[in-house]
Amino acid sequence: MSDKLAIKVTKAAHSKLPNVDFENLPFGKTFSDHMLIGTYADGAWKDFEIVPFGDISLSPAISALHYGQTFFEGLKAYRHDDGKISVFRPDKNAKRFNISAERMCMPTLPEEMFIESIAKLVDIDRDWVPSKEGYTMYIRPFMFATDPYLGVAPSTTYKFMVLVCPTGAYFSKNLNVKIETEYTRSAEGGFGYAKAAGNYAGSLFPGKKASEKGFDQILWTDAKTHEYVEEMGAANAMFVINGKLVTPSTRDTILDGVTRDSIITLAKSWGMEVEERRVAVAEVLEAIENGTCTDAFGAGTAATIASVAEMYHNGKTYVLPDPSKSEFANKMRKALDDIKYGRVEDTRGWNYMI
Ligand code: PLP
Ligand code: COI
């Protein structure tokens, strides 16, 4: 960690840490003592500050609230067995942050400012990084438009903020997934590849309908035909078919996941064949039926590797082999954790030490 960016720090008078039950940390509900906030105005980023976590005051007319000019990132910090703390591949999130910014017509943030902001906040709240196996500190950077103007136009002022929360697993069980044939998450020419808030807002209603029918997640399909796999909930969809790792190639409807990239890199390093291409729903279902699909999972920062137990499509349920016995997903989970928790040498420079 370097200290190039001037960040003013105002410490919280009292830490909430003694009141936190580290044995019980549902995802995204417990926030640390501090948060970071920076301002974009007059064409420049300025006034980066770490302040006590708390409410902020904003005009009710800000365009983020009315037109959704806002997006976010998600990454995690890990406590190694020797107490050191690292953040996993923040350079990838910094790049994707700016891809989202550009698509949402918002200012980019120099990558080193993104990384320094996160590093400083995690360092100040380093006692909040859990040490229990399977627990991490989730880091949520986000940007939103703050012009108090009701015209539909790009804002000229913005806030960049970072929150951190100690957290347990996002999913507690293997997933029962509905292959979506009515709604879509994103369409060609849209902004599915950006981590824009609107992508998630639009997924809530189909998600609620699926949940009411007993499904845990939606496997999103392409907007035009619903015949090709896109993503799995808020994670990338990946399969092992005939011993090959198969995943939809990224394009404008799909978020280019850091977990997906890490899994592809490791699988290739093991000599496994990897196919990034269009993946037909029919191909996956046939492979489940004839036993050649041995793994299906969602890959994401919050989701980690979330294995699928069952898939439902047009009135029929397809049962995957028992995920607890999956050779690939279990080996990959361990390989990724070994790197993130510093249990093996980090040969690719994926751990950013705090
Ligand atoms: N796809 C969507 C829509 C997501 O929200 C996420 C989560 O961030 C991912 C994929 C996985 O991306 P990553 O592995 O970078 O977290
Ligand atoms: C993440 O994995 O960081 C995500 O963005 C998922 C989130 C929407 C809970």
Automatic annotation (TrEMBL):
Keywords: Amino-acid biosynthesis, Aminotransferase, Branched-chain amino acid biosynthesis, Pyridoxal phosphate, Transferase
Cofactor: pyridoxal 5'-phosphate
Keyword Nucleotidyltransferase in annotation: no
Coiled coil: none
Keyword Transferase recorded: yes
Any GO molecular function: branched-chain-amino-acid transaminase activity
Residues where N6-(pyridoxal phosphate)lysine is found: K195
Domain of life: Bacteria
Biological process annotations from GO: isoleucine biosynthetic process; L-leucine biosynthetic process; L-valine biosynthetic process
EC number: 2.6.1.42
Pathway: Amino-acid biosynthesis; L-valine biosynthesis; L-valine from pyruvate: step 4/4; Amino-acid biosynthesis; L-leucine biosynthesis; L-leucine from 3-methyl-2-oxobutanoate: step 4/4; Amino-acid biosynthesis; L-isoleucine biosynthesis; L-isoleucine from 2-oxobutanoate: step 4/4
Catalytic activity: L-isoleucine + 2-oxoglutarate = (S)-3-methyl-2-oxopentanoate + L-glutamate; L-valine + 2-oxoglutarate = 3-methyl-2-oxobutanoate + L-glutamate; L-leucine + 2-oxoglutarate = 4-methyl-2-oxopentanoate + L-glutamate
Alphabetized NCBIfam families for the sequence: ilvE_II, PRK13357.1
Family, per entry: Belongs to the class-IV pyridoxal-phosphate-dependent aminotransferase family.
Function comment: Acts on leucine, isoleucine and valine.
Name of this chain's protein: branched-chain-amino-acid transaminase
Organism of origin: Pelobium manganitolerans
Lineage, opening ranks: Bacteria, Pseudomonadati, Bacteroidota, Sphingobacteriia, Sphingobacteriales
